[in-house]
Amino acid sequence: MSSINLTIGIMFLSQTALGVLGNCACLGHFVLNDFSGRRVKPTDLIVKHLTWANFMVLLFKGIPQTMAAFGMSYFLDDILCKLIFYFHRVSRGVSLGSTSLLSVFQVIIISPSNSKWGQLKFRAPKVIGSSLGLCWALQLLINAGIPTIVTEILGTKNSTGFRDVVYCAIVEIPTLTRIFYSILFSSIDVVCLGIMMWSSGSMVLMLTKHKQRVQHIHSSLAPQSSPETRATQSILALVSSFVLLYMISAILGLCYPLFDVTARWVVNASVAMSACFPAFCPFLLLSQYIKVSNFCCT
Asked: Residue 262 above 60 pLDDT?
């Protein structure tokens, strides 16, 4: 095994292990809350679905990519290839959709009761379950065509009409079909990121206005010790991570569906960026969620 492959394998292994640890910590937090009998917040269900979606991304993408980086070849048959690619796309879409949904509900939660969004505080929790179900259903439907273009790599060795993606192969499809799928998937990402940026910006604005109204209460404290300041910084860090990681992942992901790019580094870089969100953001997400929720409760 070359030193480059070893380095890539260690990177994927570390990233996957850290992501599994982070998502298990999120799930453990909610399990402890359930056993302790603490009051359930309206957005807990969203965070649970988001955590499971992140875990699925690491399971169906990080683990196979790590095995391939360490030199394992032809370890997936046709059915496993189809399942892994399909559920990776579904879980990635649910992860992004759940995060957008969480941001919107947080805006509703911290909005003043006399505002337009604040009037939805009592009705919004009733549609959380149906919204998450719709998110899963849409992703299962939109990605239904993925299994038809993915197959095992062993049967396509030295064959034309297939594209090697490390441990599986993608069937070459017409250019118009590739462009259609690329526009469809990209537009969904853009819409979700736009919702996140709008909702997070709204939260920052509301928290800033609230801080200005109660500034005399915190006049004896340092600015960074204010709970509003800490929550605002967490939201900014979360949004910046989301936007940066998803933009890089989307750009790299568009390289090989739209163009004839077969360089292995493009595939590795795309996988690494797509796994950064579920691997590293659970820590930021959990921190931001707890701080904002605690601030709202107080």
From this structure: no
